[in-house]
Write a structure and sequence with these properties.
Low-confidence stretches: 1-9
CATH class: Mainly Alpha
GO cellular component, one term: plasma membrane
CATH architecture: Orthogonal Bundle
InterPro entries: BP-dependent_transpt_permease, MetI-like, MetI-like_sf
Keywords: Cell membrane, Membrane, Peptide transport, Protein transport, Transmembrane, Transmembrane helix, Transport
Protein name: Glutathione transport system permease protein
CATH topology: MetI-like fold
Order of helices and strands: HHHHHHHHHHH
Radius of gyration: 23 Å
Number of helices: 11
CATH superfamily: MetI-like
Largest sheet: none
Pfam families: BPD_transp_1
Helix content: over 70%
Structural class: mainly alpha
Number of strands: 0
Distance between the termini: 22 Å
Length: 285
């Protein structure tokens, strides 16, 4: 490699880290806003989100900052409480998928052989179906309740998580320090938890952030189709479904939940890109 190219590489990496920290800071700030609003939702909503608070399809006003829906419920109150429901489903479902994916990926990658083959073939069956279609089928079969929705999303995203974990494990388990630990009789459980998991966790963190963004779309899409939490409890997808035929008369009924969905999705995408730069996941892979 020539001299200028060698000199350019550290500068390019510094720029990448700087932009990564900016993205990470922006993502964390946006996430902090969502967390605060979600946690304090019951105390900051101006009206009961399930009860009529004004006239039907009222425009934004000092009493109702975002207006009201078709039956006079305050849109801002429903937006805040709907975000609480949507984000709760998203976070719990992705946490379950992450836990299952970590266990399956670590066991499959570390043990290899017949165990790896059996686990991956089972996951391949699930992975072969489009995520959204599989989610529709499972929720329709189990029923549109919050626990069933969480279970469904956890199932459909577990194979992707397991694959992200398994790939690095196949490589890391052959590294010298792992072989040395194995040669002196260190247990497999300790090797996996102390010598392999800390190394492969970086791509898992990035994948988790991206999966959170994808899950928000999945949850809202299922709710839009009537497969989400049952009414009258609000959720962003359900608000879009209820308001789509009135968007010309009261555009805020559609703009507000759509903007919330975009904001939440962008938060996790920006966070994932910042984490990728800061953790240098591409170089490690």
């Amino acid at each position: 490699m020539s001299g200028p190219a060698i000199a350019a590489a550290p500068a390019h990496r510094k720029v990448g880290f700087a932009s990564g920290y900016l993205l990470l800071g922006l993502g964390l700030a946006m996430l902090a806003v969502m967390v605060v609003v979600t946690v304090l939702a019951p105390w900051i909503v101006p009206y009961n989100p399930t009860l009529t608070a004004g006239i039907s399809l009222a425009p934004p006003s000092p009493e109702h900052w975002l207006g009201t829906d078709i039956i006079g419920r305050d849109i801002l109150s429903r937006l805040i409480m709907g975000g609480r429901t949507t984000l709760l489903i998203t976070v719990v479902a992705v946490t379950l998928a992450l836990a299952a994916g970590l266990v399956l990926g670590l066991v499959s990658g570390y043990l290899g052989g017949a165990v790896d083959e059996a686990i991956m073939r089972i996951l391949d069956v699930i992975f072969a179906f489009p995520v959204f279609l599989l989610a529709i089928a499972v929720v329709a079969a189990l029923g549109p309740t919050i626990p069933n929705l969480i279970l469904t999303i956890a199932i459909v995203y577990t194979p992707a998580m397991a694959r992200v974990v398994r790939g690095p494990v196949l490589s890391v388990k052959q590294w010298d320090h792992v072989e040395a630990a194995r040669s002196i009789g260190v247990s497999d459980t300790r090797i996996v938890t102390r010598h392999i998991l800390p190394i492969v966790i970086s791509p898992v963190v990035v994948e988790t952030s991206l999966t959170l963004a994808q899950t928000i779309f999945t949850v809202t899409a299922l709710s839009f189709l009537g497969l989400g939490p049952p009414p009258p409890d609000p959720n962003w997808g359900g608000m879009l479904s209820e308001s789509r035929q009135f968007m010309e008369l009261a555009p805020m009924t559609v703009i507000a939940p759509a903007a919330a969905i975009v904001f939440a999705t962008l938060t996790f995408i920006i966070l994932a890109n910042g984490l990728r730069e800061v953790l240098d996941v591409g170089s490690r892979r």
